[in-house]
Amino acid sequence: MDRRRRGNSAQRRRQPRGPKAPDDDRFWRRLHDALGQHAGEPHSPDDLWAAVCAREGQPTEGADIRRARSTFDATLNQATKRGQRFLREGPRIRLRPRQDIEAATSARQRWQTRLDGSDGPDELLLEVLRCQLFEASLEAWPEAWTLLEGERLLAWDAFNLNEALLAWARRASGLRFRDDAPHVAHLLHAAGAAGPRDLIEARLRQRARLGENPFPEAWQPHLVESTGTLGEVDGDAEVAAGRTDLRHLPFVTIDPHDAKDFDDAVCLTDQGAVLWVAIADVASYVRLDTPLDRAARARATSVYLPHAVLPMLPPRLADDLCSLRADVDRRAMVLELRLDGHAVVECVPHEAIVRVTANRSYDEVLERGDVADLLALASGMREGDLRLELHQAELRPRLREEQGINVEIKRPNEATAMIETFMVAANAAVGELLGEAGAPVPWRCHLPPDRVEVEALNARLHALDVDIELPMPSHRTAGQSSAEELSDLLAGWAGNITVESEEPAVEEDHRSEVIDPEARQAMLNALRQAQHAASELTGATRRVVDQSLFQLMQRASYTATNTGHFGLDLNAYAHFTSPIRRYPDLIAHRQLKALMRKEPWPHRAEDMEALAAHCGERGWAAKRLEWEAVDQAFALHLSGTTTDTWPARVVALRTPFVHLDLNDDGALHGRLHLNALSKQRRLHIDDHGLVVESEDDAEPLLRLGARYPCRLRGLDLWTGKLDLAPAGHRPRNP
Question: Is-above-0.85 flag for pTM?
Fold first, then answer.
């Protein structure tokens, strides 16, 4: 090869690519030499430039000099921002002394050596990791965490002390998560430097800073103080002021064993002809548009976490005055539900005073057997209902200070079904009362399944050779013809174009936009028949159909327009039974009081759309927080156990993940990436989400519904994610 050409090539290779970062050290030396004995004094940028020009014998003016000055200023500005060799003191700049530079350089080398090693964390590293994870202010960080004594210097040249520590934490933890937080949380928890409560609360604070947690940890002190001065209920005085005295009725509350707020109580009288449902009268304490009301509205819901409750109301109300505790007088909104057999035929509301006889848990009432009449009524009310029964187990970890984390699996039983039945009946009765009166209400609505989803499910069932086919759901309203439904559907596709009808206008009422009951019941009946048909299947196929029907359901929402509740087969449904923990229920209470007193509606129709949307958003935000906190608490629980394998079942296949029900009971879920199944083969999921296939194998590698034991490879103690891997053998069908 020609030598000249080789030389040119070598020269081209030596040329830098792209902009080169300023060399602080060389720049410092140049200025230090130019300033001489004045190097330790602060100088203005003009003084520094003049010193450089004088040192190098260059003029300070001219076109070329102006370009050089611009480069000089940019370099000086960047070096000053880094705060390493150049320090800004107001408008002036000081060069760092040589001895400080040598000390920082030496400290950097020591820390690099320390953090490149494999030693475990000492007390200082644990304290710094805790400050990083909990996002403590710099004032709270240990003074020793610096590259220069007496100053918070955390970076020198390309070395960053915090980043180096996080890189060390990722290596030391042995985990595979991408984010830094799981590695830091693991090290802190393993060393006893952060307990479960610390980690859960720190994660909640982080989500608040990210705008994902709109729920304050505590109530404003002035509101706590003002509600704390409220006196006990004087039942006799309340009755004298006009409340109905129902203290003679044998009300009982039935809740989870660890419940603190009792907002509903029930009893049965008149030989089973009247069901009484008492709900705490929160509206009598929380007046509309007061500071207390605005704070409760901002929260819109209580949040139930493994270690605490973030209540919608201050403690004096939530846990005391509005809680239907036994043997004390309490204000209540009571529904007198008159029955014909098992059907509610009339609802009479009362502003009352009640005295609950007992606070019982679900398990307790089943063991004692003293509410047999209530259980029988609830069972009878459910007979013949077309509502869907789609219950799954629920994971409920609870943080106990002395015992650590206690994990329960909550499963529906006869007692929970009874209370759910009575609360649905009460909500439906209030919905009809308020709807008939034309009250603006945040309706709790639930739409039928989406047509596209039904088509996909039918295709999946066909691919499984299952003889079940669901009809297409109808969204037509009562009295609407199929042609009008199609017209509305096409108008929606075309951008909500209004199609004028020649039919005379019909006066609207609260059922005008409700899905046609016959169409709703036809779809519900088809779904129940599908459930029954699935119950006769066996093994994996049955689980696939059950899970598919569960996933077909849409999420309920709050809306200003009533469209009915598909899943409950109701024309009008409004939340009323939990005003301690849900703001929509408090709205319904106020509207019902206005109806009873013949007063104007306190909540106006023009405000309802925004209120419904706000309550829905807050409710969904609360659910996301609760789900992650449960996952996090369970991961913390697992970190102290020997559990590392599960007899999992595949419940969904969605590229690129295999979703698993770890205990095959609906309580605990995890997922595997397709890459975990095979590193050598390219895998994909078929169009129906039924199988995982490889281009090399004729037989599917994995089927939906199959048993697929998996093992725990790592725990994310920050967000609760589980790092799962196959247990070591191929999946099997039961």
Answer: yes
